[in-house]
UniProtKB/TrEMBL annotation:
One BP annotation, GO: formation of translation preinitiation complex
Organism: Pristionchus mayeri
InterPro entries: IF2/IF5, Transl_init_fac_IF2/IF5_dom, Transl_init_fac_IF2/IF5_N, Transl_init_fac_IF2/IF5_Zn-bd
Keywords: Initiation factor, Protein biosynthesis
Tagged with keyword Protein biosynthesis: yes
SUPFAM superfamilies per record: Translation initiation factor 2 beta, aIF2beta, N-terminal domain, Zinc-binding domain of translation initiation factor 2 beta
Similarity comment: Belongs to the eIF-2-beta/eIF-5 family.
Keyword Protein biosynthesis in record: yes
Pfam families, alphabetized: eIF-5_eIF-2B (PF01873)
UniProt superkingdom: Eukaryota
Protein's name in the database: Eukaryotic translation initiation factor 2 subunit 2
GO cellular component: eukaryotic translation initiation factor 2 complex
GO molecular function, one term: translation initiation factor binding
Record-annotated Translation initiation factor IF2/IF5 domain positions: 29-138
Amino acid sequence: AMQWSEYSYEDMLALVLDMKRENNPEPAGERYTIMPPEVGRVGSKKTAFTNFDRISKYMKRNPDHVMQFFLAELGTSGSIDGNNCFIVKGRFQQKHFENVLANYIKEYVMCHSCKQTETSLTRDTRLFFLQCHSCGSRCSVAAIKSGFSAMVGKRSVARRAAQQTAG
């Protein structure tokens, strides 16, 4: 066997990269695929997220936690109906739900250290912790803040109010 001192820097780098590739076949964080939210209108003032329950189960997250996050991010109210369909007050597009879902995954599903998604979310007193089953990392995650919400649909209301006070 060769001594380490006989290897060039490039040879050692190649060896290390080969080992890394053998142990991590796919680049981390790129292989989490999730079905897109199925979104439809309910009447003229509500939006239905029909595969909400399936997506929550797929992420292995409590549907109640996922729902609270969506309501906070969309800045609205809503509930789960008898068919496990998530009904939200307001007219939202599919891309709104996709963005919120992506944010949820980034904060509450994907490990903040290694970006893998084999994680569990546990509550410890007031804090939620994300425990990674791939790298063993455990980190606290932000509590859902209902005050922090997207300005979806509120802009027109704010604009009308501003126009009335100005005019």
